[in-house]
Structures are given as C-alpha cells and as structure tokens.
Design goal:
binds adenosine-5'-diphosphate; Nucleotidyltransferase, domain 5; 20% strand
Length: 393
C-alpha cells in the first residue's frame, strides 16, 4: 500500500509518499510560497526532480499541482492508487489522543480548535478539504502533534489560573512535537530491548521541546498551550516570568500583537545574539562574540534544568534521547547539555559524542546508568505508519 503524508502549512505544503510494505519513502516534494507570484512546486522521485515555478494562488491549486506531479513523475499512476492520506495536525486540543479517519464531525472539531492554533489548523483544514474533494474514495487520516501528550496527568497539564478558563476555553498545557517524541521513544525501546521505557526526549530544532516518558507514556512536556513555552528556541523565548509582559507592555506601550511577535519571533537565540541558526551562533561564538556564547550557555542551561526536573518525576530514567536538527547534529550542544550530570547517573562519552551517523548512536560512557542516545527523527514515517495501522491492509 502507498500512503501519502501531507503537512499543509500556512504558506507551504510538504509531502512524502511511502511504500508501506517496507516503510520506505519513495517520493517527496513541496509547494512553497503559496499566494505569491513565483511559487515553487517540486517533486523528487527515483533520483529525478521535477520543478514548476508559477503563481500558485491558494492551497487548492497547490494541492492540485502536487497531485499532478505525483502522476507526472510516475510515482503513482493514478490518485486512486493511494491507500490513504495522513495529515499532520498541530493542535488536537483535548479531543484527540489517537489518529482518526476524517469525517464531517472530525473536520468540524479541527475547525473548532482553530482559535488555539490559528495559523496551523486553518491551513491543515484546507489540505484536508481539498484532498477530500479531489479523491473522495481515498481515506484521509489525521495525526495530531498533541496526541502523544494526552497521557499527561491533569495536575501536570493545568495552569494555576482561574479554573473557568480551562472549562470554557480549554486553557491548559497541550504540548507539541508529539509525533517526533513518540517515534524516538519507540525506536529507543526497540534498540534497548526495553518495552515500557522511562525516557527523557529532547527534540531540538528551530522549535525545541522535551518530554518526560514513564512506562512508555508521556507524563510531562515543556511546550504548553502553545509552542512558545519551555526551552529557549531559535526565535522563541521559552519560559519567562509572565509579568515581564506587563512590565514591557506598560513601559513601551506595546500591544498584544507586539508582545506576541516579541516572544515568538524576536526572542530565543535570535533575541540574545542576533541569529536563530545554531550553526551560525556557534561560529559567532568561536570568533569571540560574547552574546553568542551567552546564548549557547543559556540554551544548554535550560535543557539541563529540564533534564533534572524530568529525572525527578520519572524516577529511574533508562535513557535520554537527542533528536531534531540540533539534537542530531550539534555535538557541542549535546556536550554542554550533558556536562556535570554524573551525579544523576548520566555520563557522556566525548569520543562517541563526536561521531556522526544516520543510524541510532549511543553516546554515553560505559559507566553511565542513563543511556544517552541520538536518534534521527522521522515524523513523516511515523504519520505514515499510524495512518497505515488505522486503515489496515
Ligand atoms: P525545524 O524545527 O525547522 O524542523 P530542524 O530540526 O531542521 O528545524 O533544526 C534546525 C536547527 O538545526 C538550526 O538551528 C540549525 O542550525 C541546526 N543544525 C542543523 N545542522 C547542524 C549542525 N551540523 N550543527 C549544529 N546545528 C545544526
């Protein structure tokens, strides 16, 4: 069976086609700069790339072009050859803890969740609606970024604010990157031969989050109602004293939109040293830029604090797992985040940490009680596998 995985974002659509007999990605592509004059649509199949540059006014046209490319590249001979489509959905609210097949009620619920993730869920819904129109005979499945976090107990996902905002507006921690956290936990479970794993997972990319996993189930995560909370990120502040918003807002007459932009787009690594790209921040620090060095230290310090707190709530941690662009590649951030944690049983092997691999890497020392693993994430494959297991053979 072939499964198409779709990530329909606000101005781009990313897609990957999987052959589920052997969980293999056979084609991938994207449609970018939707709504602009020089939009790009691209597919790569069997070593051949087809690119189209033309104005793509909206998602409907973008998805039609994607469908044409899938056929033109010969990745599929007709859209009805697809066994299913798996859609990545950022916000599943409190309603979805598992992937589901889309019907009218499901689409309505995703629409109801738009206020909680305005940019994302609207764009996801566009993707679902167009694909349902284009290929009504092919089942559409939605896989939620929040689903893995549905097992977080209420005392851990509640905010200490008036209870009515939870009841009436769904204000609580939801967490994100769930598909990635779940994928790496399952990979680690297989690798270590431990069925109900106790793990701390670190997804470190432009957006960054951590999860505490006990007996294979998520019990806490660093992102919250939105992906702004928790770790320091490329352009996002992560945890702050919320009162700094009142202070800055009053002092500089900033409105809600200004403050939203300040914390989501102008903070994090970029806010401290001017660049949100970890490679650039490291090269700036190497050249003696003090703020770049400060940003690196802050980034790792926050991670270390979360490792400590998650270790406290998990009990006996079997492993910690690095993934995402930074987690998979950045030797220095891994070393900084794991340093001086021997007292909790975590010891990095600096030589092993210097290795690079597309496979699972074990980078802890022989004596380390907590294994330290690097596992390349594959959210698209995870979505394909979840879609496949729901639709059956
Ligand atoms: P996204 O959240 O957009 O999917 P990625 O997971 O691709 O992001 O991660 C992007 C981050 O990974 C960037 O900060 C980038 O600098 C960092 N990164 C990628 N490769 C390396 C590397 N070799 N060394 C250090 N950082 C890296």
């Amino acid at each position: 069976m072939k499964i198409l995985v779709l990530n329909s974002g606000s101005s781009s659509i990313k897609f990957q086609l999987f052959q589920m007999d052997d969980n293999r990605s056979i084609a991938s592509g994207l449609v970018e700069q939707i709504g602009e004059n020089d939009s790009l649509a691209k597919i790569e199949y069997n070593g051949t790339v087809i690119e189209k540059r033309e104005p793509i006014a909206d998602h409907k046209i973008g998805l039609k072009i994607m469908n044409q490319l899938l056929i033109e590249s010969t990745a599929i001979s007709s859209l009805n050859e697809l066994g299913g489509v798996g859609h990545r959905i950022v916000q599943g609210g409190g309603s979805f803890s598992e992937p589901v097949i889309v019907d009218e009620a499901v689409a309505k619920e995703i629409e109801n969740l738009i206020p909680l993730a305005p940019l994302h869920n609207r764009a996801h819904l566009n993707g679902i609606e167009v694909m349902m129109e284009e290929i009504p005979n092919v089942k559409q499945v939605v896989v939620f970024d929040t689903a893995f976090h549905a097992t977080i107990p209420k005392y851990a996902h509640m905010y200490a604010i008036p209870y009515k905002y939870y009841e009436t507006d769904g204000v609580r921690k939801y967490g994100f990157h769930g598909t990635s956290h779940k994928y790496v936990v399952e990979e680690a479970s297989k690798y270590l031969g431990i069925e109900n794993l106790n793990a701390i997972t670190l997804h470190l990319g432009n957006g960054a989050s951590m999860a505490a996993v006990k007996d294979g189930k998520c019990i806490d995560t660093s992102m919250g109602l939105t992906p702004l909370a928790g770790l320091m990120m490329g352009t996002r502040s992560g945890d702050i004293d919320p009162a700094l918003l009142f202070y800055l807002g009053r002092k500089y007459d900033l409105n809600i939109e200004d403050l939203d932009e300040l914390l989501n787009k102008k903070s994090g690594l970029k806010g401290v040293c001017g660049s949100n790209d970890m490679r650039e921040v490291e090269s700036m620090a190497d050249k003696g830029d003090e703020n770049a060095q400060l940003a690196l230290d802050m980034f790792a310090y926050r991670i270390k604090k979360y490792i400590g707190s998650y270790n406290a709530i998990i009990g006996k941690t079997d492993c910690i797992i690095f993934t995402g662009g930074i987690g998979e590649n950045d030797i220095d951030t891994r070393a900084r985040s794991c340093s001086e944690l021997e007292h909790i049983g975590m010891e990095l092997d600096l030589v092993k940490n210097n290795q690079r691999s597309k496979e699972i890497l074990e980078i802890s020392s022989k004596n380390s009680k907590i294994k330290i693993l690097v596992i390349p994430t594959n959210e698209e494959l995870e979505i394909a596998m979840q879609t496949y297991s729901l639709l059956g053979t």
